[in-house]
Design a protein that fits this description.
With about 140 residues, the chain is mainly alpha-helical. The chain contains 3 helices and no strands. The protein has helices at about 20-80, 85-115, 120-140. Helix 1 (about 20-80) packs antiparallel against helix 2 (about 85-115). It is rod-shaped.
Length: about 140
């Protein structure tokens, strides 16, 4: 003999599997499911992190613009004391525009931060809960 073995009969869908084979398949499927859920949670947390970063950056920008607005307000007050109405009125308009921009940036940044919290992967947790319920239902059958 040359060491060849007879071909193993292929199992059809109607044949029964041993308990060991079923446990092995279930273990493999559960492992795959857990890996997929972890990947989903990572992606969801990454998205929330990006939103938090954008929101924080916009709030920082709002602070910088507000600081520039306070400097412009000081310049406006100085102009109002030393010059006639048209000069300080123009400076006051610039100050108002800067503060309006700061307000817009702050509101936008705050909205970004609210959408990023709480920092839990809620979609992934919901999916895991649904998976656990499905497994429980199938186990009872």
């Amino acid at each position: 003999m040359t060491g060849t073995t007879a071909p193993r009969p292929t199992q059809t869908h109607d044949e029964h599997h041993s308990v060991g084979e079923l446990v092995g398949q279930a273990s493999e499927q559960l492992s795959r499911l857990v890996r997929q859920e972890v990947a989903l949670a990572k992606e969801e947390l990454a998205e929330k992190g990006r939103r938090a970063g954008r929101g924080g950056g916009l709030i920082g920008a709002a602070g910088a613009v507000a600081y520039a607005g306070f400097l412009a307000l000081a310049a406006t007050a100085a102009a109002a004391l030393s010059l006639t109405l048209p000069v300080w009125a123009a400076a006051l308009i610039v100050t108002g525009v800067l503060f309006a921009l700061a307000g817009l940036l702050a509101v936008t940044g705050r909205a970004q931060l609210r959408r990023a919290t709480p920092p839990t992967p809620e979609e992934a947790l919901g999916s895991v809960r649904a998976d656990v319920e499905e497994i429980r239902e199938r186990a009872h059958r």
